[in-house]
Amino acid sequence: MAEITMTEALNKAIDEAMAEDDGVFCLGEDVSDKQGGGVFKVTNGLSEKYGEHRIRATPISETAIVGAAVGAALAGQRPICEIMLMNFVGVCMDQIVNHAAKLRFMSGGQTPCPMVLRTTTGVGVGFGGQHSDMLEAWFAHVAGIHVVTPSNAADARGLMRASIDANDPVIFIENILCYGLKSEDPGPGYRVPLGKAAIAKEGTDLSIITYGRTVLDALEVAGEMEKEGVSVEVVDLRTIAPYDEETVLASVNKTGRAITLHEAVKPFGTGAELAANIQEKCWDSLKGPVRRIGGTFSAVPFATHLEQAWIPTKGEIVEQIKASVGKE
Amino acid sequence: MAEIEREKLLDVYTRTMKVNRTDEKFRALLMEGKVAVMYYCVRGQELVSAAAMAALNDDDYVVCTYRGQGEQTAKGIPIKKWWGECLGKETGTCKGKGGTMHITDPDTGIMVTTGVVGSGLPIANGLAMASQNNGDGKVTLVSFGDGAANIGGFHEAMNMAQLYKLPVVFLCQNNRYGEHTKFADHTDSPDISGRAAGYGMKGIKVDGNDVNAVYPAMEEAVEHARSGKGPVLVEAMCYRMMGHFFGSDFSYMPKEHLEEMAREDPLPKLRKVMLERQFTEEELDKIVADIDAEIDEAVEHALAADLPSTDEIYKDVLEEVS
Question: Which domains can be identified in chain A, with CATH numbers?
Fold first, then answer.
């Protein structure tokens, strides 16, 4: 079967969902073909196919975009809204946190809010402090939403379909540096269920729990460590919240050691929640403390060498693995 | 201007009194200490809500605010469920999980009641966008106060609604106060409706205390939105005759303002219009008595109802997928 990029995978998932269900539509800044099909081309070709009503290019109005998605979802449609870059969620948090996330609960289950909020971000492209942050922990801290991020093109296709199917809001985070990643195309209708992690690589000595772009770093380091006789298991959460606790705990119970790894800043990050939960529930299996790796606690800097120093490096992952296995 | 049809006038009157009697009852219960919940009084704004709801179809959508009792009861929300929700009972519209600030009843089109000033406008656009997408012919009306006109979401929503010609009626109930701040202290322009022009939108400013002005204005706005011509901003001038919420001090309202309010009270004015249109005192009193009886029964029902089970805190967070 042919290979596809993550961009193509997302496009195909949205395309087939729109073909199957008239209630699926997209809205966001520059998403129509008149503007080039989205800044990262994810919706390329779709307005020509489905018309401007179903691929609605919007003004630069994040609150109005998310609010419209909430309203349309309440009316039974399945909107996919796009917040061009993740930092811009700061503009529309009220609609996400006070409305999308809570309307099912506050209405006693009468008004579920089936919408996908696509957004992209990533450190390593020189976008500086207001266009690079991974802010998944903000959303993982709110009840009533799923937070999803793919690390490869096949998962992107399957997770996007499952997110559109979901009867609750999904924050779907795409990493700019992952758009060009290729996978074998899993084909039409492929779905990766929400809340199910994947074992990206099996191992026996230590578990790295990660998601998104840092899965690639973890896999690369795991390959190198194999040569040094350390068997690293890589757990790709795929859904960050609510996460697949069963798979995470089973992996740590097996290996006895855990490192959490994410691009987002380390303090109060999702790694802290994972580490705390692992220590509460896998205490008897643990051979040492759970270690956390995350971005530096400052704004993402602009200059390339600063940006590279800011982000968790492969060297740091190797160091933490060695410290972990050496500390029995 | 053509006279309002007699039957429609009676409808507006009945809805107005439903709102007013509900408000009076709520305040009485709070005063007597029979209930202790947050309640945002609608005294003075009954007619605006009633006229707006009377201009809508039963299946049209409504988005309102914490001061939404008027829209909710005038739209026809089942009153036992409404009181159940306000009292935090399992018989409530939202099983007691939403409360006075978050009443939802999709069956009567009450889609969202938001506790966040200005947040309803963008959501109303989405409901209207769904109607535009699927051609169901519904209009969405979103109600908010003058205070909401100064939050960013107002501007974003107005521009987007006009851009797409969404079937939305933006109803600004200009009650002259945003929380404790009077209109002139939060806005320098003379009105809110004038802003419509800046979006290329139709704007209407109307006396919300005069049924002969406010009902036709609402009908015109709803018709405009439904016809596909796009949204309308209606600014209905009215008064919030009580504090921001029940029990809150409103000594910050100057004496002249209180006098002006008393003069402009929409209820005696409406009664006068009804009598002029040959409705009898007896007829009008009977309507109020029937409403009171229904409310009393609903309140008793709500007071006697069970509290929601504590298990409810775990339910309706996300869809339960087996």
Answer: 3-184 (3.40.50.970), 198-326 (3.40.50.920)
